[in-house]
Amino acid sequence: MELHRPFATVTPTLDGDVLAVLATHDSAFTTGQIHRILDRFSEEGVRKVLARLVAQGVVTANRVANAFSYQLNRDHLAAEPIMALAGLSNTFLSKLEGELDQWDHPPKFAAVFGSALHGTMTVHSDIDLFLVQDRGSPDAAWTHHVDELAARITGWTGNDARIISYTIGELRRAAAEPMVGEICVSGLTLAGSRAWFLNQVRPMAKKRD
């Protein structure tokens, strides 16, 4: 799946992208505003989709001056599943956090990085996850948990999981690596303390510069 285009899991059409915009905001949008958000599609295409959704009753249209504004009809029977689909990215991250929290020896630090956060995923993209094994965590149990998590991620999303696992010592030695730098800048923390992670890698990275 593409986490930034959750409706593509069920429909490849523009309808899903328009619904995603409306379902993730409480405010109303004009055709032009939606078009600017979805700049890969034509404004006429957006207008036709909105007309179909209004006819189905799932979107409401209100005249504002010389234009119409559109909003998801949250009373519609389909609104709840639409909002659930629109929130798949948050659901995925919550499931990841919950899974890590249940480990007998949780990671000292965990973060998602890469295309899953940058909005550049394709159906063939890996989901990149960075884990730091805590001291005292048995290697066999840790490996089992990591392998099981990778399988769960694929089951949840259909994408392969690329899980990078470091010990605390390995993390410090890898402080200057580009991947670690990317996590420092844009990684999304799932477990542990981001401040702890930065304290481990930034002093070492500066020494290597």
UniProtKB/TrEMBL annotation:
Give the matching InterPro entries. Answer: NT_sf (IPR043519), Polymerase_NTP_transf_dom (IPR002934)
Q: Which Gene3D superfamilies match?
A: Beta Polymerase, domain 2 (3.30.460.10)
Which ranges carry the Polymerase nucleotidyl transferase domain?
Answer: 95-138
Say which domain of life the source belongs to: Bacteria
Q: What protein is this chain from?
A: Nucleotidyltransferase domain-containing protein
- Give the source species: [Mycobacterium] vasticus
